[in-house]
Design brief:
The chain has helices at about 5, 20-30, 55-60, 65-70, 95-115, 125-135, 160-165, 175, and strands at about 45-50, 75-85, 120, 140-150. By secondary structure, the chain is α+β, with helices and mostly antiparallel strands. GO terms for molecular function: oxidoreductase activity.
Length: about 180
C-alpha cells in the first residue's frame, strides 16, 4: 500500500503555525486534478487562513459543532467544501457531485500529507449557517469543513481527546467491505 495512505489519519492536535502559501497552492492544485463525471469539477473550497484572512477563518469556525471547536481552533487553515449539485452544463441534478468532491478532498488530503500538512475532515458543522454566511446558492451544497495544519503536541488537547490521538486506528476488514456475490 502507498506510504501516504498508510500514514494518513485525522489528528486533532495542530501546531498553531502558518502553512506556507506555496504548500497551500500545491494542495489545492492537487485537489483540482481529481477525476469527476463529465469533467464537471463540481468542487469549491472556501479557505479561511487565520494568518492571512482571519475573518473568513472565524466565519468558518463559527459554523463548527461545539465538539469540533474544542480542537479545531489550533488549526491554521479551515476549509469549507462546497459541491455544485446542479450541473452548470445542463441545469440538471449532478448525481455524482458529492462523490466527485470526495475524490477531490482525497487528493487534497494525500498531497497535504506529502508536504507534512495533516488534514481532519468534519461533518459536524451548521450547513444552514455556512450557506447564509457565505451566500452559497441553492445549486451548491456545503458538505464538510476541513482543518489543515502541521501536527501538534497532543497535550494541548483536553485529556479525552489527547488519549484518542494515541489510540490505534481501527479499520473494517476486507471481508466486511468487499462483496464478491452481492450482499
Amino acid at each position: 500500500m502507498n506510504n501516504l495512505i498508510e500514514k494518513r489519519w485525522s489528528p486533532r492536535a495542530f501546531e498553531d503555525k502558518a502553512i506556507e502559501k506555496e504548500k497551500l497552492d500545491e494542495i489545492f492544485t492537487a485537489a483540482g486534478t481529481a477525476p469527476s463525471a463529465f469533467n464537471a469539477q463540481p468542487w469549491r473550497f472556501i479557505v479561511g487562513n487565520k494568518f492571512q484572512n482571519k475573518s473568513v477563518y472565524e466565519q468558518i469556525f463559527s459554523t463548527l459543532a461545539p465538539a469540533n471547536k474544542v480542537w479545531a481552533e489550533n488549526a491554521p487553515v479551515l476549509v469549507l467544501t462546497v459541491s455544485e449539485i446542479v450541473s452548470s452544463y445542463n441545469g440538471k441534478l449532478n448525481s455524482t457531485a458529492e462523490y466527485d468532491l470526495g475524490a477531490s478532498t482525497a487528493y487534497l488530503s494525500l498531497q497535504a500529507l506529502e508536504l507534512d500538512v495533516y488534514v481532519h475532515q468534519m461533518s459536524g458543522f451548521d450547513t444552514a449557517m455556512a450557506r447564509d454566511i457565505f451566500n452559497i446558492p441553492e445549486e451548491m451544497k456545503p458538505l464538510s469543513v476541513i482543518a489543515l495544519g502541521y501536527l501538534g503536541d497532543k497535550n494541548i488537547l483536553p485529556e479525552a481527546l489527547a488519549e484518542k490521538e494515541s489510540s490505534k486506528r481501527v479499520r473494517k476488514s476486507l471481508n466486511e467491505v468487499v462483496m464478491i456475490d452481492g450482499f
